[in-house]
Design brief:
The structure holds 2 protein chains of 2 kinds. By secondary structure, chain A is mostly helical. Chain A is built from 8 helices and 3 strands, in the order H-H-H-H-H-E-E-E-H-H-H. By secondary structure, chain B is mainly alpha-helical. The chains are: A mainly alpha, B mainly alpha.
Chain lengths: 194, 200
Amino acid sequence: MEYTLPPLPYGLDDLSPAIGRQTLEFHHGKHHQAYVNNLNNLIKGTRFADSDLETIVKESDGGIFNNGAQVWNHTFYFEAFAKNPKGEPTGPLAERIGRDFGSFGNFKEAFSKAAATLFGSGWAWLIKDAYGNLEIVQESNAGNPLRTGLKPLLTCDVWEHAYYLDYQNRRPDYINAFWSLIDWKVVEKRFEMG
Amino acid sequence: MAFELPQLPYSYNALEPHIDSLTMEIHHTKHHGAYTNNLNKAIEGTELDKMPIDEILKNVSKHSPAVRNNGGGYYNHNLFWSIMSPNGGGKPSGELAKAIDKQFGSFEAFKEKFSNAAATRFGSGWSWLIDKQGELVVFSTPNQDNPIMDLAEIKGYPLLALDVWEHAYYLKYQNRRPDYINSFWHVVNWAEVERRFNLL
């Protein structure tokens, strides 16, 4: 099947100044697009030619995995942002965060630390495990928690291309700004759906 | 003995237009500076405190990830600055030129192989030309790993290195890593690469 780049669910200026227009243009229009194009070229004539993206993420390796997982990861990352979202989760997700991390503040601190200390390129994730427990995991490069049976709820891209134009070497400043963009309604829905 | 961030052997704008001044300044003061500081923190009060960096990296598998990551970052950037020059570019000469022709067929074939290793390294890392017991080898490593580490897949003496972490090129080239790699060839300090080769 031919994959296409999903449009951003907001305008290129809507995340400024936390994530600037130029960053979004490159991150979505060039990086995310390149992963889509590479994936389409790589799966031709392979057993993944007609697979859905989740199957590719779970079962492929090498270049097909790198590009397929990066398509999945970026779509998931961009989907969780909104212009001026509400500040904190509510309902069952908020309760579970309180249970598993002690407080929303503790969760934010632990997630921020995972994002800040991942060495090299990769992603920090909030996941729900098979027993419904929340955990924070780090994945290098294109890594994705679906491969180990975990359900992703939220991710932060810490490849340098996600923040270098806005923050250069100051990754912690990017992570700090990341919190102001999260549309918790999206994350709550992910938590409640299975 | 704490490691020190070395001065660059040229000014921040010396490699313009191939590598821009702001990138050089942040790369040297912030990234290389942080690896230096974090390496010093990681080895403070340990038996590594008085060891040269090469000796630390030779047995790096015995030490913490902080020593591997920051020790690698410290060593790799030291080398990277030294193998570039505002008077660089062109081709190697002498024994190194002969060895490259012998190993790769031609200088152009070598360049293509090295550029390809740099372009296809997924994520952060480095592309290398090394001497592996008399044989020249081109390959890449992830993150700040390097060929003098005991845990490296391919080990040898580094002759040429190219940083392909996005911080090395993103301000000027953004997603266009291949353009950065092309520009790199204009600033390679072949005199230094030859000096390293002739030490062997």
